[in-house]
Amino acid sequence: MKKLILLSFILVATNSFGQSPIKNLMQRFEFGVKAGANYSNFNNANFDTEGLLGFHAGAVVGFKLTDNLSIQEEFLFSTQGAKVKGGVWDNQDLKIYYLTVPFQLKYRTESGIYFEAGPQVGMKLKEDIEGLNGSEFVKKLDLSVVGGLGYQTAGGLGIGARYIYGISKVSNFDISNIKNDFTNNTIQVSVFYLF
């Protein structure tokens, strides 16, 4: 009888204390979806460009460090690039399709307003540049720094805007009279839901 009581006590203690840290840890995770519009252009290009409209969509994973501070990682399909004015690619859209992975430190105030900043890695999925089929105009990796702000309700619905400043060259091509040290420059506006 004593062994049965001791075994029952151990099982109750294990359930009460053993699962609590794991449950608390899992409650700190947030998952969600995100989508929105991009307005992109090239920075430091020595040819005339205009901004290009695009979009982004994907998944969000967050981990709350405190009630107000969290780390957030996203996996987004994102269209970027620019519209060229004049020269070889006159009136052509140079479209680049990336899988972008921003890794943000996010601070959310009690009122729901948040601020975020961190690095982003973009992996080229495809490039759409007329006349350059089969060639590698765009580099496979794109590195950027990101800063943004927005508003998130207590229920997880939110809207945000961010600026993405490229720090690595977009291309390694060798074409006379065109510098290849230009970078991506993107503004994003998003709607998201975290649960």
Can you put this structure into words, describing what you see?
The chain has 195 residues and is mostly beta strands. It is 13% helix and 58% strand. The protein is built from 2 helices and 9 strands, in the order ααβββββββββ. It has helices at 2-18, 20-27, and strands at 29-43, 49-50, 52-64, 69-84, 92-108, 113-128, 141-152, 157-166, 183-194. Strands 1-3-4-5-6-7-8-9 form an 8-stranded antiparallel barrel. β7 (141-152) and β8 (157-166) form a beta hairpin. The mean pLDDT is 87.
Helical content class: 10-25%
Which percent band covers the strand fraction?
over 45%
Structural class: mainly beta
What letter string, H or E per element, gives the SSE order?
A: HHEEEEEEEEE
Count of DSSP helices?
2
The total of beta strands comes to: 9
Helix and strand layout, with pairings?
Elements: H1 2-18, H2 20-27, E1 29-43, E2 49-50, E3 52-64, E4 69-84, E5 92-108, E6 113-128, E7 141-152, E8 157-166, E9 183-194
Antiparallel strand pairs: 1-3, 1-9, 2-4, 3-4, 4-5, 5-6, 6-7, 7-8, 8-9
